[in-house]
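JOB MANIFEST
job_type = single_chain_structure
chain_count = 1
residues = 221
[input]
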Amino acid sequence: TLWRIRTYRLVVMATALQAAVGYGFGPFLASFFVRNHGAEIGDLASSAGLGVAGFLGLTLGLSTGLGGAIGVWLGGFLADRHGRNDARAYVTVPALAAAASLPCYALIFTVDSGIFALAGLALPNILGAMWMGPVHSTHQSVSPPEMRGAATALFLLILNLIGVGLGPLLVGSASDVIAWQAGEDKGASLRFALVGASLLAPVAAYIFWQARRSIADDMVS
Protein backbone atom coordinates (compact mmCIF):
# COMPACT_ATOMS: atom_id res chain seq x y z
CA THR A 1 0.00 0.00 0.00
CA LEU A 2 2.72 2.46 0.95
CA TRP A 3 4.96 1.59 -1.99
CA ARG A 4 2.13 2.33 -4.44
CA ILE A 5 2.14 5.95 -3.24
CA ARG A 6 4.45 7.64 -5.75
CA THR A 7 5.65 10.46 -3.50
CA TYR A 8 6.36 8.12 -0.59
CA ARG A 9 8.32 5.76 -2.84
CA LEU A 10 10.41 8.53 -4.40
CA VAL A 11 11.11 10.29 -1.09
CA VAL A 12 12.27 7.04 0.52
CA MET A 13 14.63 6.22 -2.36
CA ALA A 14 16.04 9.75 -2.57
CA THR A 15 16.60 9.98 1.17
CA ALA A 16 18.36 6.60 1.25
CA LEU A 17 20.81 7.77 -1.42
CA GLN A 18 21.40 11.12 0.27
CA ALA A 19 21.95 9.35 3.59
CA ALA A 20 24.47 7.02 1.94
CA VAL A 21 26.56 10.08 1.13
CA GLY A 22 26.50 11.52 4.64
CA TYR A 23 26.84 8.26 6.55
CA GLY A 24 29.35 6.96 4.01
CA PHE A 25 31.68 9.89 4.62
CA GLY A 26 31.47 9.84 8.41
CA PRO A 27 33.88 6.99 9.26
CA PHE A 28 36.52 8.22 6.81
CA LEU A 29 36.76 11.98 7.33
CA ALA A 30 39.43 11.82 10.02
CA SER A 31 41.46 9.39 7.89
CA PHE A 32 41.08 11.69 4.90
CA PHE A 33 42.56 14.67 6.76
CA VAL A 34 45.38 12.63 8.28
CA ARG A 35 46.35 11.04 4.96
CA ASN A 36 46.03 14.14 2.78
CA HIS A 37 46.74 17.06 5.14
CA GLY A 38 48.65 15.34 7.93
CA ALA A 39 51.40 17.91 8.44
CA GLU A 40 49.02 20.86 8.38
CA ILE A 41 46.56 19.20 10.75
CA GLY A 42 49.44 18.24 13.02
CA ASP A 43 50.54 21.87 13.26
CA LEU A 44 46.98 23.01 14.01
CA ALA A 45 46.61 20.33 16.68
CA SER A 46 49.92 21.33 18.32
CA SER A 47 48.95 25.00 18.38
CA ALA A 48 45.70 24.02 20.11
CA GLY A 49 47.55 21.88 22.63
CA LEU A 50 45.92 18.69 21.38
CA GLY A 51 46.94 15.50 19.65
CA VAL A 52 45.85 14.96 16.07
CA ALA A 53 43.09 12.52 17.04
CA GLY A 54 41.74 14.84 19.72
CA PHE A 55 41.86 17.87 17.44
CA LEU A 56 40.05 16.13 14.60
CA GLY A 57 37.53 14.62 16.98
CA LEU A 58 36.72 18.06 18.37
CA THR A 59 36.62 19.97 15.07
CA LEU A 60 34.78 17.31 13.07
CA GLY A 61 32.36 16.79 15.93
CA LEU A 62 31.56 20.51 16.12
CA SER A 63 31.27 20.80 12.34
CA THR A 64 28.96 17.82 12.08
CA GLY A 65 26.92 18.62 15.18
CA LEU A 66 26.46 22.35 14.72
CA GLY A 67 26.23 22.13 10.93
CA GLY A 68 23.69 19.33 11.19
CA ALA A 69 21.60 21.23 13.74
CA ILE A 70 21.54 24.33 11.54
CA GLY A 71 20.66 22.24 8.49
CA VAL A 72 17.76 20.46 10.21
CA TRP A 73 16.29 23.76 11.37
CA LEU A 74 16.90 25.58 8.08
CA GLY A 75 15.40 22.82 5.94
CA GLY A 76 12.27 22.70 8.06
CA PHE A 77 11.97 26.49 8.20
CA LEU A 78 12.26 26.94 4.42
CA ALA A 79 9.90 24.07 3.65
CA ASP A 80 7.24 25.37 6.05
CA ARG A 81 7.61 28.94 4.87
CA HIS A 82 7.21 28.13 1.19
CA GLY A 83 5.02 25.07 1.68
CA ARG A 84 2.08 27.14 2.90
CA ASN A 85 1.30 28.08 -0.69
CA ASP A 86 2.96 25.23 -2.56
CA ALA A 87 3.32 21.70 -1.16
CA ARG A 88 6.11 21.04 -3.63
CA ALA A 89 8.43 23.03 -1.34
CA TYR A 90 8.69 19.97 0.91
CA VAL A 91 10.61 18.08 -1.78
CA THR A 92 12.10 21.10 -3.54
CA VAL A 93 14.16 22.13 -0.50
CA PRO A 94 15.82 18.66 -0.13
CA ALA A 95 16.37 18.52 -3.91
CA LEU A 96 18.15 21.87 -4.08
CA ALA A 97 20.20 21.15 -0.94
CA ALA A 98 21.34 17.78 -2.31
CA ALA A 99 22.30 19.32 -5.66
CA ALA A 100 24.22 22.15 -3.99
CA SER A 101 26.19 19.75 -1.81
CA LEU A 102 28.01 18.12 -4.76
CA PRO A 103 30.29 21.03 -5.72
CA CYS A 104 30.97 21.65 -2.01
CA TYR A 105 32.13 18.08 -1.46
CA ALA A 106 34.16 18.10 -4.68
CA LEU A 107 35.97 21.28 -3.64
CA ILE A 108 36.62 20.18 -0.06
CA PHE A 109 38.04 16.80 -1.07
CA THR A 110 40.31 18.21 -3.80
CA VAL A 111 41.55 21.52 -2.37
CA ASP A 112 45.19 21.66 -1.27
CA SER A 113 44.54 23.59 1.94
CA GLY A 114 43.70 21.45 4.95
CA ILE A 115 42.47 24.49 6.90
CA PHE A 116 40.10 25.47 4.09
CA ALA A 117 38.83 21.91 3.74
CA LEU A 118 38.24 21.54 7.47
CA ALA A 119 36.45 24.88 7.80
CA GLY A 120 34.49 24.45 4.58
CA LEU A 121 33.14 21.07 5.64
CA ALA A 122 30.50 22.88 7.70
CA LEU A 123 28.64 23.96 4.53
CA PRO A 124 27.93 20.49 3.11
CA ASN A 125 27.15 19.36 6.66
CA ILE A 126 24.39 21.99 6.70
CA LEU A 127 23.16 21.09 3.22
CA GLY A 128 23.32 17.37 3.96
CA ALA A 129 20.94 17.71 6.92
CA MET A 130 18.30 19.90 5.27
CA TRP A 131 16.24 16.93 4.11
CA MET A 132 15.37 15.74 7.61
CA GLY A 133 12.50 18.06 8.52
CA PRO A 134 10.76 18.19 5.12
CA VAL A 135 11.16 14.47 4.42
CA HIS A 136 9.80 13.24 7.76
CA SER A 137 6.87 15.60 7.34
CA THR A 138 6.26 14.46 3.77
CA HIS A 139 6.28 10.72 4.28
CA GLN A 140 3.75 11.17 7.10
CA SER A 141 1.57 13.54 5.08
CA VAL A 142 1.23 11.20 2.12
CA SER A 143 0.63 8.04 4.18
CA PRO A 144 -2.83 6.80 5.21
CA PRO A 145 -3.47 7.93 8.81
CA GLU A 146 -3.87 4.35 10.02
CA MET A 147 -0.48 3.37 8.53
CA ARG A 148 1.77 6.18 9.69
CA GLY A 149 3.58 4.03 12.24
CA ALA A 150 4.32 1.47 9.52
CA ALA A 151 5.29 4.26 7.13
CA THR A 152 7.93 5.52 9.57
CA ALA A 153 9.19 2.00 10.27
CA LEU A 154 9.59 1.18 6.56
CA PHE A 155 11.22 4.53 5.89
CA LEU A 156 13.79 4.04 8.65
CA LEU A 157 14.43 0.42 7.67
CA ILE A 158 15.35 1.36 4.09
CA LEU A 159 17.24 4.47 5.21
CA ASN A 160 19.42 2.45 7.57
CA LEU A 161 19.95 -0.53 5.25
CA ILE A 162 21.14 1.66 2.38
CA GLY A 163 22.43 4.80 4.10
CA VAL A 164 24.09 3.39 7.21
CA GLY A 165 24.65 -0.15 5.96
CA LEU A 166 25.94 0.41 2.44
CA GLY A 167 27.28 3.99 2.57
CA PRO A 168 30.47 3.31 4.55
CA LEU A 169 30.97 -0.02 2.78
CA LEU A 170 30.79 1.72 -0.59
CA VAL A 171 33.38 4.35 0.30
CA GLY A 172 35.79 1.95 2.01
CA SER A 173 35.58 -0.65 -0.76
CA ALA A 174 36.04 1.96 -3.47
CA SER A 175 39.11 3.35 -1.71
CA ASP A 176 40.65 -0.13 -1.41
CA VAL A 177 39.91 -1.01 -5.04
CA ILE A 178 41.38 2.26 -6.34
CA ALA A 179 44.53 1.81 -4.27
CA TRP A 180 44.90 -1.79 -5.44
CA GLN A 181 44.08 -1.30 -9.13
CA ALA A 182 45.75 2.05 -9.80
CA GLY A 183 48.63 1.81 -7.36
CA GLU A 184 47.62 5.09 -5.76
CA ASP A 185 48.65 5.99 -2.27
CA LYS A 186 45.92 5.57 0.31
CA GLY A 187 45.40 9.31 0.68
CA ALA A 188 44.68 9.78 -3.02
CA SER A 189 42.53 6.66 -3.25
CA LEU A 190 40.37 7.79 -0.33
CA ARG A 191 40.08 11.24 -1.89
CA PHE A 192 38.80 9.73 -5.15
CA ALA A 193 36.44 7.39 -3.29
CA LEU A 194 34.88 10.28 -1.36
CA VAL A 195 34.47 12.40 -4.50
CA GLY A 196 32.92 9.42 -6.28
CA ALA A 197 30.45 8.74 -3.47
CA SER A 198 29.36 12.37 -3.54
CA LEU A 199 27.98 11.75 -7.05
CA LEU A 200 25.03 10.03 -5.37
CA ALA A 201 23.86 13.46 -4.17
CA PRO A 202 22.67 14.74 -7.59
CA VAL A 203 20.90 11.42 -8.18
CA ALA A 204 19.05 11.96 -4.90
CA ALA A 205 18.32 15.54 -5.95
CA TYR A 206 16.80 14.34 -9.22
CA ILE A 207 14.54 11.84 -7.47
CA PHE A 208 13.41 14.44 -4.93
CA TRP A 209 12.64 16.79 -7.82
CA GLN A 210 10.52 14.13 -9.54
CA ALA A 211 8.34 13.94 -6.43
CA ARG A 212 7.21 17.52 -7.14
CA ARG A 213 4.82 16.11 -9.74
CA SER A 214 2.80 14.04 -7.30
CA ILE A 215 3.18 15.44 -3.78
CA ALA A 216 0.10 17.71 -3.91
CA ASP A 217 -2.14 14.89 -5.14
CA ASP A 218 -0.74 12.31 -2.71
CA MET A 219 -1.06 14.41 0.44
CA VAL A 220 -3.86 13.28 2.72
CA SER A 221 -3.14 15.85 5.46
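[summary]
The two ends are 17 Å apart (CA to CA).
The chain is about 80% helix and 0% strand.
exit_status = 0
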